[in-house]
Amino acid sequence: MPSTSQAYNGAELGKSLKSGSRRALDRKTRLSIYNKSFKMICIACACFVCLILFSILFLMGRTGVLTFETVSPATFFFSTEWVPENDQYGALVFIFGTLALTFLTMLISVPLSVIIAVFLSEMTPGWLKTALRPVMDLLVGIPSVVYGFLGMTVLIPLLRSVTGTSMGDGLLAAAIVLTIMVLPTISRITDDAIVAVPKKYRDASYALGSTRFQTIVKVVIPAARSGIMYAVILGMARAIGETMAVVMVIGNTPQLADELFKPTAVLTSNIVMQIANVPFDSAWNYALYMMGFLLLIISLVMIVLVRLFQRKGVKV
User: Fold this and answer.
1) Is-contact 148 174, C-beta < 8 A?
2) How does pLDDT run along the chain (316 residues), one tens digit per residue?
3) Which residue among 18, 97, 131, 281 is buried most deeply as judged by most CB within 10 Å?
4) Which residues, 6+ apart, have CB-to-CB distance to 26 below 8 Å?
5) How large is the C-alpha radius of gyration of the chain?
6) Residues 6+ apart with CB under 8 A from 129
7) Strand ranges in 80-197 using DSSP code E only, listed in sequence order
8) From CA 215, how far away is CA 193, in angstroms rounded?
9) Cα separations in angstroms, 298 against 30, 67, 213, 266, 304
10) Cα–Cα distance for residue pair 139/136, rounded to 1 Å
11) Residue 259: left (phi > 0), alpha (psi -120 to 50), or beta?
12) How far apart are CA 7 and CA 270, in angstroms?
């Protein structure tokens, strides 16, 4: 015979089930409302980000186009004469310097970063990985002015003594500083991409008689190609937009960078060095806006190109 307390608990249980079943519909309705609200918030945030991006592009482009009221596009893009005091606004020096500096930085940093990532993920014992990965993460967070200061006080004198040049600043010094800055970013993301490659790929390669080097070069790195390309995109974006460190080591002279140790300037350094002395409503100010707009376009074009190469690589 069930006791009185058991009968009471059974009645409470039935009551709770009834109320639970009734609340299930309410909960379903609430979940639907929450999901729709969350979806609308996400769409609104995405639209807000797109609005900011297009607003920046529109503002920079609309103001920069005013340059061509006083300067022809051919003069602006293909002339190397940048003398604002004489109304000469040729930006070829800075465009070429930006492209050359980015290319040189990527040329040095990408192979080194991939080697470091392979070393971290495939060859390093566990205790050393635990020690090195936080160090790489800390290097990412160091302010760029610290890198620039070390480049100006340590790297440039070192380059002078090693090469015998009178001035160590220029493209090579800026590229070395930028390489040190972007190297932790590319290395860590590449490391994560290599770690994410399934173990069965390596096992299959070893089962076919491949060595460790062959497995890494012909199996692991191609399988992690997508993540490596993302790492290169992020590193390149930082290299293009970096300003403070570049200003401190590149020389800031508006002349064509036809030598590695020749002081020159890029779009970012020229904008930073001159924006404080520019009259607001002047062709000089509009020319700086156009240079900023070009910087945005170069960044977008490079990111699109890398993504196209990435898609082509994935299909292989």
Assistant:
1) no
2) 445 455 445 555 555 545 555 555 677 788 888 899 999 999 999 999 999 989 998 999 999 999 898 888 898 999 888 888 888 888 899 999 988 998 999 999 999 999 999 998 888 888 888 888 888 888 888 888 899 899 989 999 898 888 888 777 888 999 999 999 999 989 988 998 999 999 899 999 999 988 888 999 999 999 988 888 888 888 888 888 888 888 888 888 888 888 888 888 888 888 888 888 788 888 899 999 999 998 888 888 877 876 776 665 444 3
3) 97
4) none
5) 28
6) 120, 121
7) 82-83, 88-89
8) 15
9) 47, 19, 37, 13, 10
10) 5
11) beta
12) 85
| DSSP letter assigned to residue 259 | S
> Which residue in this structure is represented by tokens 């490596």?
228
Show the tokens assigned to 253: 């002279």
Q: Which position has the token pair 């009259």?
A: 279
Written as one letter, the residue type at 53 is L
Question: What is the residue-wise DSSP string for 265-302?
Answer: --HHHHHHHHGGG--TTSHHHHHHHHHHHHHHHHHHHH
Tokens of 58: 């529109």
The two tokens of residue 160 are 């002078």
Note the residue count of the chain.
Answer: 316
